Amino acid sequence: MDLIQKSGLKKLEEAMTHSVLLDTSFFIRLLNNSDPLHINALGYFKYYLEQGIRMKISTISIAEYCVIGKVSDLPLRNLEILPFNQIDAQ
Amino acid sequence: MDKIGEIEVKLVGKQGNSELTPENYDIKHIISMLTHVEDMLFPTSKKDRPLIAYDIEEGSVKHKFKTSIQAIIGFSALLSQISQTESIDFLELKSARAIENIQKLSREKNYIFLIKTSLEDEYKLQIGPQTDFYRNEKIWVEAEFYFYGKLKDAGGKNKANIHIDTDDYGYIAIETGIEFLESRKENMLYKNYGIRATGLQNLETGEIDTKSLKLLELIDYNSSFNEKYIKGLIKKSSNNWVGFNPEKWIEETRGGYDA
């Protein structure tokens, strides 16, 4: 029984995809090569993609980034966007 | 207790000047009713549902469905709730849509639908031209969504759409308009994309009405690391952020909330 449960859990883990929600500061550090933590951010960015971990960014983070930067600077080709709708504002 | 129960949907109405009977009742209405009852009984998953048997009888027209008593008990409770609250807002989307379609047919054809289960003698729910079983539109609001996955179908005879296979929402169809598909030069099939779309979302449950989705934008999406791409972006954007302390700047910008 225990073996079956463990085997089932393993299959479930294999089927699950992991994801990470990245905050604005991550992108500022990733996209500024003079930032002291730039190399760390780039390392994480590469690691997530290579490990099949889905990277998510909220539309709020995009808006914050665009106070100074441009939306076309963000690596949106590799990111999944989380929208902000009326239900999120309640 | 019997393991099988019954649902009866009695229809009272006329076909021209004649009373409605199974002999003058069009098969397209029978097909719709089969789908509606299946959607009301099992709105989320039909894959593992028990057998549903069907029969039609006179009087004017009686649709009779037999299935497991467990499903019938649930359906009976659902009928009571709809009847008491005179609302379908609490229902799963497919069930709500099934009731709306019955309501629509009732008004179009001047039919009265009476619904009960084998657990009770009286009809529990009546849908007629005077009733108003529609979802409250204020609960369903326009929203914007992003879907990511593999594009597996594109086309459609009258209504052009694309189908995308997503991890989060399953296999969904998004209306595109014929012009969009006509203008695409490259083969989009079996490639990963992001899709920005509008549609209706339930303000109470967050549920998305997947029949309402319309394409706004197709986004290139690639989950592999491309050094040239990211280095290009870093080179382009670095000058904007020289001398910035991200944490301090974000704290000042947000003024105490988290994104």
Distinctive features:
heterodimer, A: 90 residues, alpha/beta, 3-stranded parallel beta sheet, B: 259 residues, alpha+beta, Alpha-Beta Plaits, OB fold (Dihydrolipoamide Acetyltransferase, E2P), 2 domains, 5-stranded antiparallel beta sheet, 29% helix
Summarize the structure.
Chain A has 90 residues and is of the alpha/beta class. Helix content of chain A is 53%, strand content 13%.
Q: Can you put this structure into words, describing what you see?
A:
The complex is a heterodimer of chains A (90) and B (259). Chain A is of the alpha/beta class and 90 residues long. Chain A has one domain. Helices cover 53% and strands 13% of the residues of chain A. Chain A contains five helices and three strands, in the order H-E-H-H-E-H-E-H. In chain A, strands 1-2-3 form a three-stranded parallel β-sheet. In chain A, helix 2 (24-30) packs across helix 3 (38-50) and helix 2 packs across helix 4 (59-68). The radius of gyration of chain A is 17 Å and the shape is globular. The mean pLDDT of chain A is 87. With 259 residues, chain B is an alpha+beta fold. Chain B has two domains: 4-127, Alpha-Beta Plaits (2-Layer Sandwich); 140-220, Nucleic acid-binding proteins (OB fold (Dihydrolipoamide Acetyltransferase, E2P)), CATH 2.40.50.140. Helices cover 29% and strands 34% of the residues of chain B. Chain B is built from six helices and twelve strands. Chain B has helices spanning 27-41, 69-85, 93-109, 178-183, 227-237, 246-254; strands at 4-12, 14-15, 18-19, 53-58, 61-68, 112-117, 125-127, 140-155, 161-166, 170-175, 191-202, 208-220. In chain B, strand 8 and strand 9 form a beta hairpin. The N and C termini of chain B lie far apart (55 Å). The mean pLDDT of chain B is 91. The chains are: A alpha/beta (90), B alpha+beta (259). Chains A and B meet through helix 2, helix 3, helix 4 and strand 3 of A and strand 8, strand 11, helix 5 and helix 6 of B.
